[in-house]
Structure formats: structure tokens, C-alpha cells
């Protein structure tokens, strides 16, 4: 009897193993000669350029360390809990890029996360979002990439350890648990603009890849869509009703932010988000950016949550108006804030002045941790990063960790109704440690 049970268990295990390898194994697709750029229509290449911009391809496929590298030639370093992963070369170089990939091989990579040679791709490449992109857009993207200059650059080797680096098992198992392939399907409950925005946001723009927290296996947490996540030491804030700012992200605020990099009531794009409006979404038709804003305004239920916005703005202006006058000037932390920050963040009117972000309305003060406030203090914001032509210097050299902690504590207690942050000086040191080199615009 025991032998029979053991035999059945072995048989089931073998059948399961065979079934899993049948699921995870893919054949190689034969290499092709690099297609001539003239074989693609100019319209297809132009449309593909928009798909590449909407998906921020150059952001993750261009090396930024070691002196930088050619656009789209890969070798961008992604530090993950599972080791360092270096992005692939997307130029049409036949040896180190995708020059010998057929369109069918490229589509398989986008749709299923499978390389031309049949190997499983790591989900650092967000194929779980790109699987939503329709065939025409993928074909146009292929035309665009194959029409770019070929660059011979071999990406560095990944440092993912055994056994995760055994892709057929590690990534195959990951996909079995978390990956649902398939193109985006319009939701009949919503209008065409909403569906266009959802298609772009969920698929090509893969917003959830940064704004949704991850589980222990690196997949986006089910049931926590758009709840916010930590990315490169910054917090990508929630894009839903859990966003804590006192003024709701309305459709118009979202559009201004995504199109121009600054929202009148929420401030400027900074850090990893800064290139999104300035380098990428600015290339898209305005109608597409408005569609994304329309979709996210529905996600965060802006229409039903914005009734208190006017009162919140009034309170923020009153708090800002006390920055430079009144009894708070006897507070040593207030005086430090006034000396370092007050001149540029003071607002006295009924609404914030363009170019003077009102901190009482900003995500940075209302998030659970001071990451973004510290990162902006340390990095600053360049003239091309936030609002055009307006810059904030880095205080990397001008403020100590203790100074930063004092300013953070002061702003949290005077600009919000939330409980104090803890371990502020320790967290300031941790934020400083994330900077590999001091910013070139650091103040002294």
C-alpha cells in the first residue's frame, strides 16, 4: 500500500514537472538579417516613436552610471532585492542588441516576456504591463527601434543569485503565480477617453510598476493597486483615494503635472518622476495626456472627494503666511526653515504662486515617511526638472542631517494635521547615503 502511494506521488510529481516545463519552455525564434530602415513606412516609425515615449523606453535602456551611455543601448543598472539587473540593448545592433530579432520575436518579448532565444525575461522588464499593448502599437514600436542607429554595447552581467538566475524555473514559476497575458479590453462602463487613458496607463506607461507596492517575490501586490511604493529611495505616492494630500488630484491638476511637470496646487515633479512629463509625455498628443489624467481622476474618485479643497487651500495659505511673522519666529526650528527655505516657499495670496510650491499641500509632507522631502533637499530640482526655468538648489552641503531633521519636524507639525515622523536624523542620513555623488548644484 505504501509503495503504491509513493508510486502515485512520484507519478504526480513527474507529471507536474513535465507540465510545468511545457508551460515555461519556449523555443528560440530564428535570427533574421537586420531589416532595412527603408522597409518601414515613415508613419509607422513616427507612431512607434510615440509608443517609445509613452513607455519611457529610453529611461530604462540608457546607462546612467559609469559616465552614461548611448540612448537605447541598454546597460542601465536596476538595483533590486534579488540582485542587480542590467537592461538590454534595444538598438538594432545584430550582436549586442535586437538587430537580428524578427518582429515575431519582438512581439513575443512584449506579449509574454520571452527573449528571442527562448529564455524567460526578468519582470524588471514590465512585460506584465506591455502584454496589454495592442499589436499595432507593438509593430510600430518595432519599426521605430529598427530605424534607429545601431550601437554595439554589451550590457554588464546581472548579479541575480542561484537559483533565481535559473530562468526557466525561477521566472516560469513567477509567471505561473502572477502573470496574466492578454491585450487591453475596453471597459463598456466607461467612455472612450477613459478607456484610452486606461490603455495607456496600464499598458505602455506601466504606471503601476512604480506606484503599486510589491510582495516578497517582486510582483505587484494584489488588492493594493496604485497604493504607492518606494522607488530608488523616493516614494511614488498613491494614485488612488489613499493619496494623503489635503487637496485632491483633480483631472486638471493631473493634466498640468503630467504635461508640464508642475501642478498649481501640488508642486513640481522631481526625482525619478521628473523625466516622465518633461522627456516623454511631452512628446505625446495632448489628447493622450488628458486621457491619462481623466482615467486617474476616476481612479482617485476626484469628483466626489474635492469638496473640501477650497478650505484646505485657505488653511495652507494661512499657515504659509505665518512663516515670516508672528510668534513662530521664536521657534529655533522655524528660524532655520525661514533661513533655508522660507523665501522661496512663502505664499500670502489666496492660492500658491506659480513657482512657489506650497509645502502644506505637497505630497512630501503628508506621506508616511519623509523620503521625498529629504530627497528634494539633497538633490534639489534643476531648471529642466520641475517648472521650466525655475530651480531649487541642493542643500546636500548646506544642511547637516540634524538640520534636515529639524526642518522636517517643523514642517510636519506646522503644515499638516498628522502625527510626527520618527527617527528623523537617522532617516536623513539614510537618504544622504543613497546619493552616490554630491549634486553639482549643491549649496554651501
Automatic annotation (TrEMBL):
Primary location class: membrane
Residue ranges annotated for the Cytochrome c domain, each copy included: 43-149, 192-300, 328-415
Superkingdom of source: Bacteria
Binding site for heme c 2: 207, 210-211
Cofactor section: heme c
One GO CC term on file: plasma membrane
Annotated binding of heme c 1, by residue: 57, 60-61
UniProt subcellular location: Cell membrane
Keywords: Cell membrane, Heme, Iron, Membrane, Metal-binding, Repeat, Signal
Textual note on the cofactor: Binds 3 heme c groups covalently per subunit.
GO molecular function terms noted in the UniProt entry: electron transfer activity; heme binding; iron ion binding; oxidoreductase activity, acting on CH-OH group of donors
Binding sites annotated in the UniProt record for heme c 3: 341, 344-345
Protein's name according to its UniProt entry: Cytochrome c
Organism: Gluconobacter wancherniae NBRC 103581
Amino acid at each position: 500500500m505504501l509503495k503504491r502511494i509513493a508510486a502515485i506521488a512520484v507519478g504526480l510529481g513527474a507529471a507536474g514537472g513535465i507540465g510545468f516545463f511545457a508551460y515555461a519552455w519556449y523555443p528560440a525564434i530564428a535570427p533574421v538579417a537586420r531589416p532595412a530602415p527603408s522597409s518601414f513606412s515613415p508613419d509607422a516609425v513616427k507612431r512607434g516613436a510615440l509608443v517609445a515615449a509613452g513607455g519611457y523606453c529610453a529611461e530604462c535602456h540608457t546607462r546612467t552610471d559609469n559616465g552614461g551611455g548611448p540612448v537605447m543601448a541598454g546597460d542601465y543598472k536596476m538595483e533590486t532585492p534579488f540582485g542587480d539587473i542590467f537592461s538590454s540593448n534595444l538598438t538594432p545592433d545584430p550582436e549586442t542588441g535586437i538587430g537580428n530579432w524578427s518582429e515575431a520575436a519582438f512581439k513575443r518579448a512584449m506579449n509574454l516576456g520571452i527573449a528571442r532565444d527562448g529564455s524567460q525575461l526578468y519582470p524588471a522588464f514590465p512585460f506584465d504591463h506591455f502584454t496589454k499593448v495592442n499589436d499595432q502599437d507593438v509593430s510600430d514600436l518595432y519599426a521605430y527601434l529598427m530605424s534607429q542607429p545601431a550601437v554595439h554595447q554589451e550590457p554588464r552581467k546581472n548579479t541575480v543569485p542561484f537559483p533565481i538566475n535559473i530562468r526557466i524555473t525561477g521566472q516560469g514559476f513567477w509567471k505561473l503565480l502572477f502573470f496574466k497575458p492578454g491585450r487591453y479590453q475596453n471597459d463598456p462602463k466607461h467612455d472612450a477617453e477613459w478607456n484610452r487613458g486606461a490603455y495607456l496607463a496600464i499598458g505602455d506607461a506601466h504606471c503601476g510598476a512604480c506606484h503599486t507596492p510589491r510582495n516578497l517575490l517582486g510582483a505587484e501586490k494584489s488588492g493594493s493597486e496604485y497604493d504607492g511604493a518606494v522607488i530608488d529611495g523616493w516614494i511614488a505616492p498613491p494614485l488612488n483615494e489613499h493619496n494623503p494630500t489635503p487637496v485632491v488630484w483633480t483631472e486638471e491638476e493631473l493634466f498640468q503635472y503630467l504635461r508640464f511637470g508642475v501642478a498649481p496646487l501640488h508642486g513640481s515633479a522631481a526625482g525619478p518622476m521628473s523625466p516622465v512629463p518633461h522627456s516623454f509625455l511631452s512628446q505625446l498628443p495632448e489628447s493622450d495626456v488628458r486621457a491619462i489624467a481623466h482615467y486617474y481622476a476616476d481612479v482617485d474618485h476626484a469628483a466626489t472627494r474635492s469638496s473640501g479643497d477650497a478650505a484646505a487651500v485657505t488653511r495652507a495659505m494661512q499657515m504659509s503666511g505665518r512663516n515670516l511673522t508672528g510668534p513662530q519666529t521664536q521657534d529655533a526650528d522655524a528660524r532655520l526653515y525661514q533661513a533655508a527655505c522660507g523665501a522661496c516657499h512663502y505664499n500670502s495670496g489666496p492660492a500658491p504662486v506659480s513657482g512657489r510650491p506650497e509645502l502644506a499641500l505637497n505630497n512630501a509632507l503628508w506621506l508616511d515617511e519623509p523620503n521625498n522631502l529629504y530627497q528634494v533637499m539633497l538633490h534639489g530640482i534643476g531648471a529642466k526638472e520641475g517648472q521650466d526655468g525655475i530651480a531649487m538648489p541642493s542643500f546636500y552641503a548646506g544642511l547637516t542631517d540634524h538640520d534636515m531633521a529639524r526642518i522636517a519636524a517643523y514642517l510636519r507639525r506646522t503644515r499638516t494635521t498628522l502625527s510626527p515622523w520618527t527617527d528623523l536624523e537617522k532617516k536623513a542620513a539614510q537618504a544622504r547615503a543613497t546619493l552616490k555623488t554630491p549634486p553639482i548644484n549643491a549649496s554651501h
